[in-house]
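Milestone M4 deliverable, item 7.
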Amino acid sequence: MSDDIFNSRRYDRGDVRILADVREKGFGHHKAVVEDLSCSGCRLNTPMYLNPDRTLYITIPGFSALEARIAWRRNDEYGCHFVNPLHEAIFDHIVAKHPSLAGNR
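Output delivered:
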């Protein structure tokens, strides 16, 4: 694994629950739930198999698609690393707009 993946914990994490569109490059799109967001990536929850060798595009409602790569997989959960990290202001806006029921960051 790259150092970037290990350093991803240096960013604040937001406890969110967002129904998003996920599309694999060259394939159709489907719905997934974005959870545990940071500026460097997120955790996706989806019953659909995502191929770790393909680029993903994650679209959160109201925002442009985020290009991501899969860092890990555990059952229906995928750890995704954004190719271009989110700006802190965008991260704060998303977390404020889409809090999970747990609600804390």
